[in-house]
Structures are given as C-alpha cells and as structure tokens.
Specification:
The complex is a heterodimer of chains A (256) and B (620). Chain A is mostly beta strands and 256 residues long. Chain A has 1 helix and 10 strands; from the N terminus they run H-E-E-E-E-E-E-E-E-E-E. In chain B, strands 19, 24, 25, 26, 31, 32 and 33 form a 7-stranded antiparallel beta sheet that branches. Chain B has 620 residues and is an alpha+beta fold. The chains are: A mainly beta (256), B alpha+beta (620).
Chain lengths: 256, 620
Amino acid sequence: MEELTRMKATSWLAAATLLVLASSAPALAEDEGRVTISIGGGVLATSSAPEGTFDFDHQLFGGEAGSFDADYGGGEASHYEASIAVRLRERFGLGLTWSTSVLDDDADIVGRLPHPFLHESHRTVEGTSGGLSRDETAVHLSLRWRVRAGEKSDLTFFGGPSHIELEYDLVTGVRFDQAYPFDRASYAGVDAETTSGDAVGFHIGAEIVRWLNETVGLGFLVRFSEASVDLNGPDGSTMAVDGGGLDAALELRFRF
Amino acid sequence: MRRINIVVALGAALAMSGAVLSAQGTAVPAARAFAVTSAPINAPDLVDADLTIDSMTRSGALELVSANPDRQLPGHRHEYLRQVHRGVPVHGAGLARQRQDGATISVFGTVYDEIDIDSVPTLSAEAALDRIEAVAGAPPATSEAPRLAILPTELGELVLTWSAPMRDFHTWFIDAHSGQPVKRVEHLYTESAVGFGRGITGAPQKVSAWHTGVGYQAWDRLRPAEIVTMDGRGELVDRVALFFPTPAWLEAVAWDDDNEWANASITDAHAHLGMTYDYLAQHQDWHGIDGEDGRILAIANLTGYYNASYLRPPFGPQGSGLMSFGVSRDDVPLVTVDIVGHELQHGVTNEAVRARTGLPVIGRQTFALGPSSLTVEGETIRCGDYHTFPAIPLLREEEKYAYMCLDEDFRTTTSRNGRFAMWMYEGGALHEAYSDIIGTAVEFSVHPPGEGLLHADYRVGEDIGRVIRRLDAPHSLDLGSGYTLPDSINQAFRFVGVLVPIGRYTTIRYTRWGMRGNRPFRLSSDGYNGVHWNSTILSHAFYLAIEGGTHSSGATVTGVGGANRHLVEQAFFRGLADLAPPSITFRIMGSLIRQSAIDLHGSGSAAFVAIHEALTAVGL
C-alpha cells in the first residue's frame, strides 16, 4: 500500500510539473500544437519471468519441508496506456505516460513432497498451473526528442525514468493427491497468493505518428522498460522480478 | 504343474501323544496328523487324505469353517474343516486343505479316530460359567456364553469341557460334567524380561497423528487400519483397566499439543507400529492384525512395566487385543522396531489362523524320552523322585509331585527304570519364532543392512543395548553356564515335567530341570517353558534360507541372498497365515513352509531349494 501511495504521488507530481512547463513554455508554431494527449493499447512482452525453488509446509509432512520449483511462463500481456506530452522546444519535450498490462500467467511446477511416514523419502510431482495473474502498472516520465517532423507525420525518440509496480500471483505451495501407501503422489494444483512490489527503472522508445488532420493522429510506439522489483517470495524470501519489457502500442493522438 | 511330496505322515501319530495313557490308565484315541502334498508319485496319499475328508464330512465328523480364495495365487482355494463329535467341536482338531483348480494339493492338520465320549454336558452353560468364575477367581472377560468343546489334553485324553476367557487373562477349561478344572490358556504373549544398558536411538520418527482441534492424538488415520497408541503415563497398575473393554481408552490416547512429540516411547512405538503395518500390507498383503484392517491398539510409556507383550482377544480396551510396551530394568523403552514388530506379529499369528480355522494357534506341547536321571553340578534327580515347588507366601503352599517318567510301554511310572518325559512347548516356540522372523523382516524393510544403530541385522534387541536372540548365530549367545540358543530341533531345550492332578485329570507343570540336546541343565526357578529359546530353531532356518552358510552340523545352505529375502519371507508368512491349522509343531511347520515355497515359487526354484536346505539343516 505504501508503494502504491508513493507511486500515485510520483505520478501526480510529474503531471503537475508537465502542466507548469506547458504553461510557461516559449511560443511555438501554432499549427503543430504544444500539447499532445494519447490513448492506446497493445502488447507487452514481459522482459523476464520469475523462477526459483521454494520451501513449503504441509500438515502431512511430519516436520520435513517440502519444496517446489516454479518456472513462470511470462509472455505477452495486454497493455493499455494514456499519455500527455508537452513540447518545450522545437524538437524537445516532456512526456508522462501511465500504462497498465495484464497477463494471465502460468507456471511449470516440480514439487518434492516428504513422505508422511518416512524421513528423507520425497515424492516428485509435476504439473502446470494456469490462472496466475501478473498485473503491472507503470508511470514513465520521458524526455522526448522529435527527430523528424512534417505536416503528416512525426518520429520521436524518448526515454527516461519509469516507476513500475508489479502485482503477481505467486505459487506458495503444491496441492497433491495421495493414498496409502503414499509412495507416489499426483499433482493437483497449487496454492497461490498475490504479492506486490514496485521499483524505479528506466525506459526508452520511439514512436511515429501519422496526423490525420490538424488535431487527430494515429501513432505507433515501441518501448522498452525495465525495473527490478523485489517481491515477497512464498517461503519468506525476496524474489527479484524484472518488471516492464518490450511493449508495442497503437495510439489515438490529439494535439492542441 | 509338477509338485513334489514333502512329508507323508498320513496315519502317523505325532509326538506320541496318541500312545500315551492317561493318569487313570484309560486308552485314548489315536491322533492322525496330516502333512500331505500332491505329487504324481505320491498321489495315493493325497487321495487317501481326500477320501478321509470326504468320509468324515459325510458322517458329520468334519464341519466346514471357512473356504476362501488364496490371497495371492489365482486358482488356489483354502478350506478349513474342524472335527466335531456329535455336534461338539474337538478343540484344535481339523484339516486345512488347499486346492488348485479343484484338485487337492495339500492337507495339514490333526484329527482323532474312534472318539467315544459323551457329548451332552451335565453342567448347564450358566452353571459352568459360575464354576469357572469360582476356580479362576475372576469374573468373565466377556458377556459371551461359555463354549462347549472336546479338549485333547497334553496327555492325549479327550475331555468334554466348557471354556470361557476370564479377567485373569486366561481361558479356563473345566470338565463339563464334574466342573473340575482341566486346563487354562494364557492370553498374554510376552517378550523376555531383560535388563539393558543403552538408551534408544534418538533417531527422528514421524508420528502419524490426528488433529483434534486442541491438540494432536497418536491416532493414525492415514493408514487403512487405524493405529492408536495410548499413553501409560506411569505405572502399569494405573492402566490395568485398559486390559479390559472400556470406553476409558479414548481418554488414554497419547496426546501432544503441538505435534512435536517429546516422549520417545510414544513416538517410537507409534511409528514402529505403522512401519510394521506397512511391511505386512506391502510385503505380505496382510492388513493389520486381523487381516481386515481392524483398529490396532497399543499402550506405551509404561515406566513400571519391565516387559513388552501382546494380549490377545477378547482382552484389550475394545476386546480386540492390546500391545503393551514397557521398559527395560534400566528404563529404556522397549519400542525398537524389531520388538514392536515382534509383538504385533503375535497378534497376526493368532488372528491369521483364527480367521481360517476359528481357533488361534494352539500351544501344542510334545515330549521326547529322556534318560532315567539328570545330574547338574553335583545334584541329581531320578525317575521316582519327587519335585518340590517351593511355597509362595499368600499364593501357594509347598507342593511335591513325582517327576513324569514313562516305562517301555509309554505308561507313566515312578520306577527308577523309567525315563523322563522331556517336554517342549512347540506351539509357543513357533509363536515366538514367527514374531522374531517378522520383527526382523520389518527391520530390514526400514533400515539398511549392517551393524550398529538403525541398521538391520538378525539380532533381536540390539538397539536397546542387549541382544536377546540371534537368528544368525544362535550358538553365539550364551544364556549362562555355556548354554546357548539352539539351532536345530535336536538341540532344543526340553523340560522335565511333573504330573499335577486337577480333579480327575492331570496337567503338566514344567520344572527347572531339563536337557538342551544331550546336556542336562537346571534353571534357577521352575515354570519357564523355553519358548523364546527354542524359537531360534525355526528363525535360524529363516536366516539360513536368506543368507546361506554352513550350519553347525556341517550342512551347507545356499541362501537366496539379501536382495531376494522377500521370497523367503513370503514363503514363511504364507505357511502360517494361509496353510497352518491351529495345532502345529515344528515338523508340521517345516512342511507348511516347504509347501508354501512350492506354491509361491515352484519346486524347482532357488527359493524352495534354499528353504528346503535350511529347514533340513535345523532338523525340520
């Protein structure tokens, strides 16, 4: 909760800064507009998926710890974003982008289950768990450099700091079916808990906009962002997960 | 399938019991022992056995008790037929027949010919129970009516009796006419009381517990048979009530608040009961004590009880028996895996036979002729002498009886020329042998072979600091004065007995005198029957069949090897659980185990050869 509050404060501060800069910027060509607002959506190819080995407990393990390997799939998340950009000079400007992406992740699980009667006699179960939600919310503060400008299109590179918050359903334990004599067990799913964390990283990207008229344009952007987020692991450990990734989005852009 | 004939004893009397005369000189019927297997060359013997069964069944002298498919072998079926005389069962007499695809392939058991006894009791059942209560000095253990049966005594007499289990932990048999006591059978099987020097291993154990909401009970509900371990919490005397059916046992179940069990006795007993269950279920296809996954009850942490024991039904808090695990004289809990397995197997031995035949293993006693005198350390006893049982304050006056000697015609005599009847409690020794065998097998199923703590070997009690029996080398265990455990039937401990009259009848009481093989001995007190010592005769054969080696007689045995121990274990277990009649001797047991090995592994198998050689080496 504390991270979320900090993130929102950061976002509002950045937006306020951008408005102040917009209002105080020197006069520019009126036909190109000073402020652009865009909304769009696309996909985010997550930059990394967590994996690791974790301990877990069960009432039938008789004091021995079970463990499991979890190898999350990661992949392409649905991505939505909204942004505002202010042109400060002919080619330079500032931008602020809020984005969110949602991934229905899965994880390959290999569990090692202590025998209920025997010491050091583990059973191995394997399976894949789906439905693990990975939600990512990011705020990107960008320095923008417009390298090509024309009546119909713009090409802009941008980069800057990013604040990324991850909310991840992490596997905390392995469910299993077993029957006497318990020499074998079968995979029956996982227990998962939602954990979250945030971190500041960076982003770089480029966008191209094709203006349909004086005010409205269509844009396409590609952005790479990354921030190493520490999540609370299922056994109390800390697990570093790279938030962000490579996203591509189509935008509807307005300029004023 | 080719089968070989193992023992053909059709028509032969076992242990001379059929030739003995009663104390009153009345001729007794001849016992016919069957130990017959099928073989083309010996088919007539089997045909005779079948004809006997058919004839006796038609005349009503044999009555079917059970008929079940084999637990392991398709096409095999087992029947047990008990002998009845005018509708009254003859205690322990009957035949166990194995058939394969409808053809008889083995017959084991004992029946009596020409029974001539009145089968109508003079005493009513109610009057008999009153009388039993008077002679036992204890009330009945159950609400069941007493049973009417014709009881063969140790001397071969047949007596119409009423019997009932009483709360003194004995089943009493009384004459159904006169009400005079004839016999009593103890329900308690105990491990030897021993003193030891080292504590238990301290190895971690898992305790399969039941979470009650406020704590955890030593109540295993994970296994198909519930295993419940109760907490003695002190002196045995405080827990005697649990030896009888009582709902109070629920309050005695061992309990721990956080499932981290601190009491080593409870922990080991509970864990090892589970391991024994697992061995029987997974290696022998036998489920629990009763074979039907009935609840298993035990009590541990009995700090004042210097023994471990199995109390068979109808005793125990649910009437289904009870194992008790006490401590050594050094307060080391008697809960190592071999001891726990030993006690649980006592229950299996009883129930496996009872389930098929209606009776548990009967403690059959046999005798052999000894010399006319015995001398130990300058003291001599002779036929014609009297043995004095010293007085026990408040319990017994001094008693004096003549040593039991026989003349050339096997009549009892007090003549100096008579020869001692040297008694051996074979049924009890076989009980103990099987408990050691299965206890050892369980140990090998949970520990790697080797010496030292938490390793499997053929020693009993090693993990509590004192070896009390060695299956691998019985001769190496000195019982004192150079006497060692026997490794063959010829070296068995046999005891000089006295005939103690009980009303019109007589029973045998063991004295301290006896012979181990040809060497006389004298114990410090009377009454021990040597069942634990003589158990190594069979258990050593078990060892030889697995590991091989040279017997002390010089006979060599090619064992199946440790990797194939299960072949021998299965043959031994099947011989008892699936084939044995209630009345067994060492020699019958040898035949049963051979037949079992043939059934399971074939007569040409290495396992059968190993078992055959091992049994032959020990004289069976």
